Amino acid sequence: MIYTETKNIGNYRGINEHLDKAIDYLCTHPLDGIQAGHYEIDGKWVYMHVFDYETIPEEGAFFEAHRKYADIHMTVEGEEIVGVSDISRVTVKTFEEEKDLMEVKGTIEHYIKLLPGKALITLPEDAHMVKLASGSPSAVKKAVIKVYIG
What domains are defined for the chain? Predict the structure, then answer.
């Protein structure tokens, strides 16, 4: 897991070639005013989804992990909490290989407050629960860049 200011994300170049492409994209494409949808960056290797939603209580949230992709989470508007745990500390309930999506269960080890201007990179070893309300439910616009790690 990497939690940083989006203005400092360039410091993380060199970890993976696809992560470098995602970082280059973020450094040259401001997210202000972006609309919900799917954005191609580099085919199946790097792409972005932008969502509009209401945050929810932890009891109703989905706890997930991925084997092949890292996620770069950034709120464009609003704030949410993201729960993160090491994959070794959760149990896999289901895995959809085509979607690279594991549903997991377990206890959250860390709660990260995601605000505009911050980026949270969850790697394959990081199970994560998104859309968590920071207090009462609120509207969020969020970009998630999917980065192939292998």
Answer: 2-148 (2.60.120.370)
The answer to whether 106 and 91 are in contact (CB under 8 A) is yes
Spatial separation of the C-alpha atoms in residues 142 and 107, rounded to whole Å: 24
Residue 85 tokens read as 């745990």
Q: Evaluate if pTM is beyond 0.85.
A: yes
Q: Compute the residue count for the chain.
A: 150
Q: Say which DSSP state 22 is in.
A: H
What b/e string do you get for 5-40 counting C-beta neighbours within 10 Å, with b at 16 or more?
ebeebeebeeebebbbbbbbbbeeeebeeeeeeeee
Rounded CA gap, 79 and 115, in Å?
5
Which pLDDT belongs to residue 116?
97
The confidence band for 6, taking pLDDT boundaries of 50, 70 and 90, is very high
Furthest CA-CA distance within the chain: 39
From first CA to last CA, the distance across the chain in angstroms is: 16
